[in-house]
Amino acid sequence: MSTTIQIPQDFYYVGATIVSTVWVLLGQGFTVGKYRRLSGIKYPQLYAEKAEAEANKDAQLFNCAQRAHQNTLENIPIIWATTIIVGLRMPVIAASACGLWSLSRISYTIGYLSGDPKKRVTPLYGLGTIGSLGLTLTATVQAVQWIWQGVSAKLGH
């Protein structure tokens, strides 16, 4: 049994917003490298120790940049998968949610880089979280529909 997937005409929006997430990751990676150099934290040390961060503002900012980048890396597989799945049916909605998520990650990173981790949570970050949840729920509905269609086809309905 084979399945044909039709790519919607507006799917290029999905591709563009997925690329935006790559640029967010690259920007965060460069920021981590900048503060690693400024703080003097050597590889393979993942974070500055508490005493280092308390004694050196750049070490604290390194920790904040590193954590913002790591958190984005933890979430990116969910964003990519759900954006593609939703984008196969609703490309403009998927692209809008993914683009909003990318903007929210920039806001999140800027807030984190204030040196006060509490400032990472901004109104824009909250909107990105809503977009992410919307993508996840919509992708789940889409997956259930695909399964139902497959089962129905096998049963001859």
TrEMBL record:
Read off the InterPro entries from this record.
MAPEG (IPR050997), MAPEG-like_dom_sf (IPR023352), Membr-assoc_MAPEG (IPR001129)
Keyword Transmembrane helix attached? yes
Question: According to its UniProt record, what is one Pfam family this protein matches?
Answer: MAPEG
**Ranges that cross the membrane:** 12-30, 78-103, 124-148
Major location category of this protein: membrane
Q: Which UniProt keywords apply?
A: Membrane, Transmembrane, Transmembrane helix
Entry keyword annotation includes Oxidoreductase? no
Q: Name one GO cellular component term.
A: membrane
User: Where does the protein end up?
Assistant: Membrane
Give the protein name, as stated in the record.
Answer: Membrane-associated proteins in eicosanoid and glutathione metabolism
Origin organism is Macrolepiota fuliginosa MF-IS2
